[in-house]
Amino acid sequence: MSHAVRRPLTAAVVATCSLALIGAPAAGAKTKSKPKISKTDRAQNAAIRKVGRTATSASRSARSASRSATAGLAAAAAASRKADGAQGGVNTILAGVPAITDGLQKLAAGLTQAAAGLTTIGNALAAQEYGTVKIQLGTTDVPGAILNSSDIPDDSNGATLTGTVIVPVPAGATGVPIRLLAGVRSGEADGTGAGDPVASAGIVSMSAADASGGGVTIGGGDAVLTRAPLTSAPNDALGRAPLYNIPNKAPRVDATPNPLSFPDADAIDLTDASTLYRLSGAPIGPFTVTNPTGTALPVTVTFTVRFHDLTASATDVTA
């Protein structure tokens, strides 16, 4: 090999070796180790990492709180709107309170008046009074010949009672008077005697007729106008009204209730001659019946009686 050729080859080998020496450490040389971190640095690094984690958590919490706050504000706004609506309703109610109060006061006053009215009605019902009449033949009751009037008004207006009853006349009866008695059953306070009579009564009309076909003779009455009915005479003590006082009231119901009972002890005789109207001026008295046959025969008695409460009170329905 020539000298000229060897020189380029030598240069190439040297270059290659130089590159190898630069790219790799020499054989047997030690690799350089990382610097050793102190405890203080490690602690600082841990603290830094912890702070970072805390910051990250805080950031997440802040974002969550922000979302919660936003929702809370929305809920608060909704609640505020509801409160405003409720306040409007309250204001409407409050605006109506005076009218409601006035209405309640009027209702209370009305109920008070109603209670007073019901009390008055209750007292009036408890204090009702009605007339009762009975036919007697002489002093003997005619069976079933008892009738009652409606309630006697408390304003002096009258209650009228009209009826017709059959009176059996016993065989052999001679000149027996037909008597008409009247009493008042009352729940009122009056009716304690002559000075405080319960009510007044009078005959409007009373007549008797033979129902046997001629077997009974009817006498009495007006001595001249023998066919005229009986009626009560005007009473000077009562302003010429054809009425006569019934001093004592009878109980509304007897101790033993009986629809056909009669208060004999508290009744007056409307056919008393002194209280009958003398139409002709001739003597007058109750009708009489005579039955000469041997069997009982009937007559009919028809009457209308008026009852008045002349001690009426404008303020006390129990008077």
- By DSSP (H or I, 4+ residues per run), the number of helices equals 2
Give me the secondary-structure category. Answer: alpha+beta
Question: What's the alpha carbon Rg, rounded to whole Å?
Answer: 63 Å
Percent of residues in helical segments? 25-40%
Mean pLDDT over the residues: 83
Terminal CA distance reads 175 Å
What is the ordering of alpha helices and beta strands?
Answer: HHEEEEEEEEEE
Structure notes:
- The chain is an alpha+beta fold.
- It is built from two helices and ten strands, in the order ααββββββββββ.
- The chain has helices at 3-23, 39-126, and strands at residues 129-137, 140-151, 158-169, 176-186, 199-210, 217-222, 244-246, 268-269, 284-290, 297-308.
- The protein is rod-shaped and about 170 Å long.
- The protein starts with a helix and ends in an 11-residue tail after the last strand.
Brief overview:
The protein has 319 residues and is α+β, with helices and mostly antiparallel strands.
